[in-house]
Specification:
This protein is of the alpha+beta class. It contains 21 helices and 13 strands.
């Protein structure tokens, strides 16, 4: 009872100070309505995004009180989003608040820094993601890993066993991003690399504990004293660092030995991964490389894996969509002659993937409702007025809510809560883009996600192979699927499904 009383007193003091501060210093300026405090976020942490969606349904933009002189502003208004991410881009940066929370895990990578450090990494990364070398190399990696995944699914189907498809996607995408980023085969799907599995668990837990800092007002004290969640975060980051630094050291050694025979095909293959290419064009400081690579991993592992898990969930809930996607895959690939999974994957061309408009729409509709990054925060660098006429002040955290925006009827219409891929197709059944300030799953403006096409390619390759050979059903139709509140939108506890072989007469597994 004493703790509850202290919290109530604390909230009252904050509200009073805020009201006095606004009146004395800002005169007639209008501020977005107060919808609560960070204490309410803490209380609702397990359903945080739904809690904030409820608030967004009442106010397109609102404030939460974060301290005596600081607010957090959350918006689902596309006009405000465009203003933040494009029109007045320089005034809405990651800022010290976000940097201090994220830096222990992500260091000075592209997701945590501003200014020259961000521009430098953006420039080099933009070049690398636009090269055909990376596209072709990554496609081969994706195909190899989805074949491994499909064989595991096939074995479960034969035994009529349920499987945690999210866990399998996590392993598959981790294997993919490590092969593309480091040139290293983790093979976590087959369980041959215990170090890789240990790294994966530590990275996931570190991500969740990092997000906890946004609602834990005592995290800096706990960090200084190495207590509780901060002690756990430090242990997990130590595991992550040991693994990554070992890989970087090994790669630098190999690169230093590669001083001749540049035409050797085996050596050229080693230069296809991102780390090798960074080592060719930039510095070799292990900390710098560690930060860059971990930012790539958080961008390329969890985002794709969680989206694929939600996609499987949605098509299990909507079998009509599942069959329509499967029919499109067969039509686009003309795959009647494919004898097995490996052959089909090898035949899967860029042209065939480009023809899969309905699959693209179904994946995009999944991202609308279950964006991989549900909330993205910036910091206001100087006092400003948003397009809706309300003021924000220097130091305020300003965030757009991708999860809430996907559920707003004023953006998507009366069926905003419905899973309907057709909303993304034009009258010719071709995929139709929406404004990135309305569909914010990949950010927008100068910080728009560099890996957008990379992510779609991997998801379409995985979906094409799996749905060409299998039908999926939920392991338990009564299962209540919830998310785990962390940086990315994981399905809490995984997703249990059953797979059944599709049985064209000329297909063998």
């Amino acid at each position: 009872m004493a703790i509850i009383f202290i919290i109530i007193i604390f909230l009252c003091i904050i509200f009073c100070i805020q009201l006095i501060y606004r009146k004395l210093l800002h005169g007639k300026k209008q501020y977005h309505p107060i919808a609560g405090t960070v204490i309410h976020q803490l209380i609702n942490f397990r359903r945080l995004h739904d809690y904030m969606t409820d608030l967004a349904g009442k106010y397109k933009t609102y404030r939460l009180i974060a301290g005596p002189f600081r607010s957090e502003v959350y918006t689902s208004d596309p006009a405000n989003v465009e203003y933040m991410l494009k029109t007045n881009f320089l005034n809405y940066a990651k800022g010290w608040h976000n940097y201090s929370i994220l830096k222990d895990l992500l260091g000075e990578g592209i997701f945590t820094v501003d200014g020259e450090k961000w521009r430098e990494q953006r420039k080099v990364s933009s070049y690398e993601f636009s090269t055909r070398v990376l596209r072709d190399f990554s496609s081969v990696v994706f195909k190899n890993n989805v074949v491994k995944l499909a064989n595991i699914v096939s074995e479960a189907a034969v035994r009529n066993e349920t499987m945690d498809i999210q866990d399998l996607f996590m392993k598959a995408t981790l294997d993919s991003i490590f092969r593309v980023a480091f040139g290293v085969d983790l093979d976590t799907m087959c369980g041959s690399n215990e170090e890789g599995a240990k790294f994966s668990h530590a990275f996931d837990d570190a991500s969740a504990l990092t997000l906890w800092r946004y609602v834990d007002m005592a995290w800096k004290i706990k960090r200084a004293l190495n207590l509780g969640s901060e002690a756990e975060l430090r242990r997990n980051v130590r595991v992550v660092d040991e693994f990554v630094y070992k890989l970087i050291s090994s790669k630098i050694e190999k690169m230093n030995m590669m001083t001749s025979d540049d035409d050797d095909p085996s050596i050229q293959l080693k230069k296809d991964d991102i780390l090798s290419r960074f080592l060719e064009v930039t510095e070799t400081n292990p900390k710098y490389l560690r930060d860059i690579i971990l930012n790539f991993i958080i961008a390329g592992k969890d985002t794709t894996a969680t989206t694929m898990a939600w996609f499987i969930y949605m098509i299990c809930k909507h079998p009509r969509v599942q069959e329509k996607v499967a029919n499109e895959i067969e039509s686009a690939t003309n795959s009647n002659d494919a004898r097995d999974i490996t052959e089909f994957a090898s035949m899967l061309s860029e042209d065939a993937l480009e023809k899969m408009h309905y699959l693209h729409a179904a994946l995009t509709e999944t991202l609308r409702l279950y964006p991989a990054v549900p909330v993205d925060a910036k910091v206001c660098m100087s006092d400003d007025t948003m397009p809706d006429g309300f003021a924000v002040k220097k130091g305020d955290m300003v965030a757009y809510q991708a999860y809430a925006m996907g559920r707003m009827e004023f953006i998507w219409g009366d069926d905003a809560h419905d899973y309907r891929p057709e909303r993304w197709l034009d009258e010719n059944a071709c995929f139709r883009q929406e404004s990135p300030f309305k569909f914010t799953a990949f950010q927008a403006g100068p910080r728009i996600c560099l890996g957008k096409e990379f992510a779609y390619r991997q998801m379409k390759i995985f979906a094409a192979v799996l749905l060409r050979f299998f039908t999926f059903k939920l392991g338990d139709e009564r299962q209540t699927v919830k998310y785990r509140t962390m940086i990315n939108l994981h399905i809490d506890g995984g997703l249990s499904v059953r797979a059944f072989h599709r049985t064209p007469t000329n297909q063998s597994i």
